[in-house]
Amino acid sequence: MNASPTSLPGGTWNLDDSPVTRFGYGAMQLAGPWVMGPPADHNGALAVLREAVEAGITHIDTSVAYGPQVTNELIREALHPYPRSLFIATKVGANRDAQGGWPTARRPEDLRKQVHETLQSLGLEVLDLVNMRMGNAEGPQPGSLAEAFGTLVDLQQEGLIRHLGVSNVTTEQVAEAQRIGQIVCVQNMYNLAHRHDDDLIDRLAAADIAYVPFFPLGGFTPLQSAALSGVADRLGAAPMSVALAWLLQRSPNILLIPGTSSTAHLRENIAGAGLALSGEDVAELDSIGR
Ligand SMILES: NC(=O)c1ccc[n+]([C@@H]2O[C@H](COP(=O)([O-])OP(=O)(O)OC[C@H]3O[C@@H](n4cnc5c(N)ncnc54)[C@H](OP(=O)(O)O)[C@@H]3O)[C@@H](O)[C@H]2O)c1
């Protein structure tokens, strides 16, 4: 299996030829309310990013749509010139409107524009990973991704992108993408309470493809469950730590990108994700989403 040790919980995973820590960081929460505009605490946001990298995290997830441009510019300000080990994953497929909506933008010209804007705002000549984000706020929607994903394959062949992934997709769309190009990851919503992708995770693990759950802590509605609190109390741990530890133990191809705008939460999450869960703990936690 692909994973190897690091000081962070979960070890590392190879996204094709690129090793990343399984404990990563999702930058979305660094933008303003509802992911629009600048953060309330600019220096605090920079501190979170710098502390993440100092702690050894080598996988940061972002998107040009966050802010828009805001999280990319924060990442650049905090971390550029980037350490060689740092792997920055991005997404394309949506713009932002004045009301904070996420209108779909998946025509070839939209995607090319977003990739070039991402390169510029991150200060890069090549992007490590671009996920083709499909579906909508309700989740994955059926339909072909061929034109959109094919545009990213073209951009990869032009040398602007190293690796490709897909996000907010159905199992059929994952298979369709694999017929068009090589994917190194799938980024879908998944956590203790939302387990629609259980079979997909196992199939991707068998193919050495990473699964990157977004909203690992419940996103805008943090996870709340009596079973989760019960296990956390028994272990003397925070519920969020238990939720992250459960994901790391769920499958070796799961990469964490929990979001936080707080260095205290970042530290708590790093320390807590390494919690060893017993079979009894896991059985109790499994009851939440089934
Ligand atoms: N592909 C997609 O469509 C998609 C969609 C959404 C998100 N994403 C990606 O997934 C990443 C993760 O999602 P997310 O950040 O929205 O949700 P999340 O990781 O599930 O949860 C983040 C929320 O949990 C809180 N939190 C974090 N640690 C905590 C702790 N120890 N105790 C209490 N609260 C804690 C954060 O608040 P504080 O700031 O106060 O810590 C924040 O409100 C994003 O950053 C983004 O990169 C992708």
From TrEMBL:
Stored InterPro entries: AKR, Aldo-Keto_reductase, NAD(P)_OxRdtase_dom_sf, NADP_OxRdtase_dom
Gene Ontology CC entries for this record: cytoplasm
Molecular functions (GO terms): oxidoreductase activity
Gene3D superfamilies: NADP-dependent oxidoreductase domain
Domain NADP-dependent oxidoreductase: 24-288
Keyword set, alphabetical order: Oxidoreductase
NCBIfam families: PRK10376.1
Protein name (Swiss-Prot/TrEMBL): Aryl-alcohol dehydrogenase-like predicted oxidoreductase
Organism field: Nocardia bhagyanarayanae
